[in-house]
Amino acid sequence: MNVLNGNGGRGLASGALSSLVELGYTVGTTGNTATQPATTVRYDAGAQQAAQQIAGRLHASTAISSAAVPAGHVVVALGEDYTHPGQVAPTQTATASASNTATADDSGPAVKAGGAPCVN
Fold first, then answer.
1. Low pLDDT (below 50) residues in the chain
2. Do 109 and 23 contact (CB within 8 A), yes or no?
3. How far apart are CA 9 and CA 12, in angstroms?
């Protein structure tokens, strides 16, 4: 899995990738991309379930199939709407983030995406 920073904040791609690796996803590369308003998650064959899980964890829109992504890989591009999974998303209330109740999104992945880092 690769994570690209299209948010403009420093170190966000590394932080997001580290958080996802802690959940059991396969490490890939980080980098920068043009600033974009929304976080996107793209995947190709064999990675749809992982991409959908990642999109949910990052509060991104629906994961998008892309032939530009190698089979079994996921590419995340963080947008200006990105908040670190441990932070309150702009549309959530502080009460919701203070809850200690575990949800399905708090657990590790049911599947792992990628093996070797993919190249964009």
1. 88-120
2. yes
3. 6
Which tokens belong to 87? 């932070």
* Contacts of 46-52 spanning 24+ positions with Cβ under 8 A: 46/71, 46/72, 47/71, 47/72, 47/73, 47/74, 47/111, 47/113, 47/114, 49/110, 49/111, 50/1, 50/25, 50/74, 50/109, 50/111, 50/112, 50/113, 51/113
Pairing of strands 2-5, 74-78: parallel
| Dihedral-angle region of residue 56 (phi above 0 means left; psi in -120 to 50 means alpha; beta otherwise) | alpha
Tens of pLDDT, residue by residue over 62-93, are 899 999 999 999 999 999 999 886 654 444 33
- Whether the CB-CB separation of 74 and 53 falls below 8 Å is answered with no
Task: Classify 17 as helix, strand or coil.
Answer: helix
pTM: 0.72
Token pair of 72 as six digits: 């079994």
